[in-house]
Amino acid sequence: MSAPTRPMPGAPRPYEFPAVHRETLANGLRLVVAPMPRLPLVTVLALVDAGAATEARHEEGVAALTARALAEGTGALDGAAVTARFERLGTAFDATADWDSSVARLTVTTSRLEEAFALFAEVVQAPSFPAADVARLRDERLADLAQQLAEPRGLADERFEGFLYAAASRYARAAGGTAPHVAALDDAAVRAFHAAHYGPASTTLILVGDVTPAAARAMAERRFGAWRSAARPAAPLTAATARGGRRVVVVEKADAPQSELRVGHVGVPRMHPDHLPLVVMNGILGGLFSSRINLNLRERHAFTYGASSGFDWRRGPGPFVVSTAVKSEVTARAVEEILREIDGMRAAPPAADEVALATDYLAGVFPIRYESTSSVAGALAGATMFGLPEDWFARYRERIRAVTPADVHRVAQAHLDPSRLLVLAVGDAPVIAGPLESLGLGAVERFTSEQDPAEGSDA
Amino acid sequence: MRIPVETYTLPNGLRVQLSQDHATPVVAVNLWYHVGSANERAGRTGFAHLFEHMLFQGSAQVAANEHFELVQRAGGTLNGSTWLDRTNYYETLPSHQLELALWLEADRMARLLPAMTQEKLDTQRDVVKNERRWSVDNQPYGTWWERLPALCFPPEHPFHHSLIGSMEDLSAASLEDVAAFFRTYYTPDNAVLTIAGDFDEAEARAMVERHFGAIPRGAGRPALPDMSLPPTFGGWRREVVPDAVVAPRLFLAFRVPPAGDEAWYAASMLGAVLGMGAGSRLPHRLVREQQLASDAGAYTFDLTKGSDLLICDVTARPGVSAERLEAAVVAEVDRLIAEGVTAEERERALALLETSWVAGLQSAGGRADKLSQFATYRGDPSLVNDEPARHAAVSLEAMAAFARARLGADNRATLLYVPQAAAAEAA
């Protein structure tokens, strides 16, 4: 049987990101609507300019706790009744806070939109925050933290940022808050945060799916039009200080069969002009399955099930980090290979073909990423939060395709810095510390899993 | 809401499902092989999954790792997964790249073995061992998904043994095993192919014929042994596992009819009543009211051969004892048996299932996978469209009767993780 040879692609068919309608209500609330009428489904999202990055030290974790507590009651309804009403409408209300914003969202079938939207509006504007429920959610957060720190991956993620940022920086501690601070939060703190930050001037309402701009506007006027509040967006955190230069840290986990590895340094803010070339550079370095780091560590050396790199995009400079989990015995060799790939990225421009792999991938998957109402709503929330230009989505693919090997080389040299790398391994210290030491990157510092660098001072 | 589907079968036995939707220029290719860990021979646990890794190591015309590279270069996403009784492979691409995915899938279905080498096998064996360390051995509660089937299915039953496999069995896998497994199970008559999204039907049919038409039918497969089991465990099974965890976690399992059976829909509805959404019984009672648990849910495994499992999965708050946790979960199940389900709970469950059903239709990849699933397990992909109605057909009486018959003390299996420190104190 003669095998058919590799086929050529057909002619690309046109794609357009859903059209986006923007307006502002009289009270200052911004409304963003993107119709996607194919299925009877609507995602409703409220983006509030109230993130964890601007929390004061004594209230860390309050943004996340406030978001979680929104659905714990409004008017005559208690939390259980709110949950029951949403679920009878076939939907789940979900609210979270990240570094730069708080987001409440639900996805509902069109026939139940009106009723779900009315309750959504009530819990966002007028939550009752019962003391006992806020205390319960606070204790759930403490339980989650304990679980996360017992898990090697969670511990590595948490400690990496703790060792990376100066303790004075909010970024040194998890966005959801750490135990000593969260334990002190209560309903008064949550109520104060809501009053200070949740209001029409700091909120954008986003509706995506089977809804017209006119219908969305009418609903928004009816349910949010009377909202008055002195709340204003907080000044965003735009700078964050690193703790210091290159450092090698082992967090002990006795008898671990694998080391959770994190290698990286402070990156750049989302709105840095090099953002898109950095996305392409990262795709080549460790962002794709076919990236240099994954092919090296997984397919060439079989050190790991997978390895990746990424920039955490925030208003301030979030981390750049390479993450992987490797068999304990090869921990130091894996670090060596990661450093080799970072050096290689800086040493010479990538081949045009390698850049095309990343740019063709990023441009091609764009429509695949935005098949659902919730993914489009999430993208619009991000664009709003960062203040991206209105043509961002329309022109994303052409901008990605315009990135050149020279751009990639330039941003690798500008934004990857081996002299600043923090190498952190959560693993079996007696097995991995010696080989890590012999890499010559610096003395290996050993810590127990209980020692939290971010709770102390920087001295 | 229906997923449209056209079906036909090639002379070599490959079943093909076509489901058009032109809303966005995206197309999904999805291939299910009716083989999983249940088909492994003794001493080769984990092989079906290791074999899945080998399918990304190239074929006659595709170099190692080129499968990933070509799809990503085309602007597509891809992966594969292995389950107890099936393995799937899938790509979603810009619609003008449809033929690339078909060519890649056909090349490895027709001509995998010329590309297999000892070096590739050794590499993927180590990758999979690292996957095991990462997802099972170095993860709190990570062993649950091999301990629970081992507890619930008798030794020698095809669902009893570990899907990820033991290190020892992974070490034993050879190139001869790869060749035999490929020839036996990776044949067009043991597969279903689904194309969903933006494509022209006549063009797609021609492409399928061009790439898959000449692949020969297989020489037959050993049948799985009889997988039927008594309707209940016939007792209360129990395993307590001290682990490096900060809080107890309970898996309370019940044997239920195989997914798709008329009676199974009552189990699926009870799963939603017990553990779908924060307002369902276990989260409402144990997380909100009693504050014993930090997380609670319930679900079916959706096994279609012999029997399925309904599982309550509840993690305690740190400091809550395993005994208290288990007693509280059991009390909820007992209350369900004694009092049945309310009309409001049934409506709530159906509304949540409906939204989840519509949301699941949004992506081409999601639609394709559902069609492959129903073609493989039920013999007719269009049956997927009956799922909402079949759930809605379950009456309150049927749920109450099912709870009495299947959730009692003669049909329970407790898998309980306890913090090592607490276990040491108790000893």
Would you give an account of this structure?
The complex is a heterodimer of chains A (459) and B (427). In chain A, 42% of the residues lie in helices and 18% in strands. Chain A has 459 residues and is α+β, with helices and mostly antiparallel strands. Chain A folds into two domains: 21-224, Cytochrome Bc1 Complex, Chain A, domain 1 (2-Layer Sandwich); 247-454, Metalloenzyme, LuxS/M16 peptidase-like (Cytochrome Bc1 Complex, Chain A, domain 1). The termini of chain A are far apart. The relative contact order of chain A is 0.16. Chain B is an alpha+beta fold. Chain B has 16 helices and eleven strands. In chain B, the strands form two sheets. In chain B, strands 1-2-6-3-5-4 form a six-stranded mixed beta sheet, with helices on both faces. Chain B has a five-stranded mixed beta sheet with strand order 7-11-8-10-9, sandwiched between helices. In chain B, strand 1 (6-9) and strand 2 form a beta hairpin. In chain B, helix 1 packs across helix 4 and helix 11 (322-339) crosses helix 15. The N and C termini of chain B lie far apart (57 Å). The relative contact order of chain B is 0.16. The model of chain B has no long low-confidence stretch (mean pLDDT 96). The interface between A and B is large, with 75 and 86 residues.
